[in-house]
Amino acid sequence: MQLKLENPKIFADIVSIISELVTEVKLKINSEGMSLTAVDPANVAMVYFKIPADLFSQFDIKKQEIIGVNLESLKAVLRRVKPGSSLLIERHENMLKLGIADRIKRDFSLALLDIEAEEKEMPHWEFNSVIKMNAESFVEVVEDCAIVSDACTFVAEPDKFIVEAHGLNSARAEFSSDELEIHSGNSLARFSLEYLNKFVKGAKISSKATLSFSDNHPMRIDFPTGNVILSFVLAPRIEQED
User: Fold this and answer.
1) Model pTM score
2) Which of 31, 73, 115, 122 has the fewest Cβ atoms surrounding its Cβ within 10 A?
């Protein structure tokens, strides 16, 4: 297996974002590209990403590879990637070889892990509400809500979308269909801000966010970036309102 990225920043950013949810993961590498599906230890959130084969300047594999890696270790190496660097990824027996080439050639070796967790797949659901919005706006409302509570409520109607949080204090943001794209019936669901604060870092790789949810149903959040996919699923908080 030999893969090469001429612009590895997006891979480095994705690994950094995902490492806040999970530590040890299985990377799947096949003829379609590199992908990962993982569930956090609390079984509350799922993350998925895929980098297609055509984004690599070199993509040589003889068979599908499933490799277990520690994301903290991988993230530490990818921090050494600078603008203009290329990244070569190879497997040699039980080691993952990472070569960074810029002014000098640097090589790192990471021990591969034997991870027994069963392989997951991203679920496919029909949602009552789909909201397409600016990713930075989504970051702002999540950060606003985190000031006053540990959870927020998403309310969607055919012509508006509201995010609000209540504790001793409260925060509220309302958007109309003139400000963002709304495809929705009436939906209401509550979600943990601890997780949302991690998810919104997807704004590093995409200027857009798509939020899909229904009444008291897991939410899906997508950060579309060309052919690169970064998606999250989050279970709702089922409890009485503050």
Assistant:
1) 0.93
2) 31
Residue 126 CB partners (closer than 8 Å, separation 6+): none
Q: Using CB atoms within 10 A of its CB, is residue 60 exposed (0-12), middle (13-18) or buried (19+)?
A: exposed
| Local structure of 118: helix, strand or coil | coil
Q: From its phi and psi, is residue 78 left (phi > 0), alpha (psi between -120 and 50) or beta?
A: alpha
Consecutive H or E run containing 195 = helix 193-199
C-alpha torsion 89→91→94→96, nearest 10? 0
φ, ψ for residue 4 (rounded to 5)?
-135, 130
- Residue-wise pLDDT for 194-222, tens only, equals 999 999 999 999 999 999 999 989 999 99
User: What pLDDT digit, counting tens, does each position of 27-76 carry?
Assistant: 999 999 999 999 999 999 999 999 999 999 999 999 999 999 999 999 99
Q: What amino acid is encoded at 57 in this protein?
A: S
Query: What is residue 20's three-state secondary structure?
Result: coil
Length of the chain equals 242
Record the tokens describing residue 177, joined without a space: 């269909």
Domains parsed from the chain with CATH numbers: 2-111 (3.70.10.10), 129-234 (3.10.150.10)
Residue (of 228, 208, 227) closest to 13 by Cα position: 228
